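ugh finaly. both done.
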Amino acid sequence: MSQDSIESRKQDLKVRLEGIQDSYRQSLGDISAEVGFNGTEWSVVDLLRHVTAVYYPNQVTSLLEEDSPDLTTPAFDLSVAWQRTTERLMGQIAEALSMTKDLSLDQLQRSGTRSGDTVVVIGVLEGWAAHFEEHLKQLQDEIRPREGLV
């Protein structure tokens, strides 16, 4: 590729990205956090998390840091992705359970501050459990029925 061709593509890409940036600003400017997190099916925040995934930055990094990297990714396998996701969840629950079982009473009482309030390890673990429970209830009472799963 010629330098002129790359420079032209660079300029075109710059203009394109600036347009994308402006459009996102315009499209997101009047959305409150409540609306952004509203819903369980492709909410605004779900879309933003998807768009900001590291797929493209990782490719750029590989191209810059490696000699002729192979950027081929395996075809997306829904079953593998589902398995990884559920294993990650179950692993986090197991991690919380392990910490709860293995930490000493002294460790469970270690404290710090969060937004000016005193927090202790056992309280954070309890919060983690409540987080799991909150979304389990959402899964059981909202999502499974919506998907026709009893």
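ok and the 2nd:
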Amino acid sequence: MRECNYCLRHLFHGGKCQGKGDGKSCLIFQRDPRGRREYLENDGFKIPFHVDIPEVGKINTDWEICGIAKTLTFTKIRKVEWHSDTKGLHGVYLWADYWYWSDENGELPPSKPKLSLVKNSGGE
């Protein structure tokens, strides 16, 4: 059943494939080289002051997951809080929902994805 999530003709990849049914194989399967869409909900990470908060719905290439560069599309910003400690403010904590292609720029390790900043998209 997972196979059609990787198909170029799958609904989320722009095609019309509705997936396999009744144990029959999908006769129009063509593997999408990007893999399938992986969704993460309410993922928290730190953003320093000199970096723009990602825009919802806009493609973003400034982040990597587990050391692998990914093109992320944020779908919802759930919460933003100040990131501070005894030395002062350092930026903000952001909790957001987003998706990315699973096979883009290499496979992910099986551990929980960890988002990190790889380049500066705004400001300084």
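summary for the 2nd one i guess: The radius of gyration is 18 Å.
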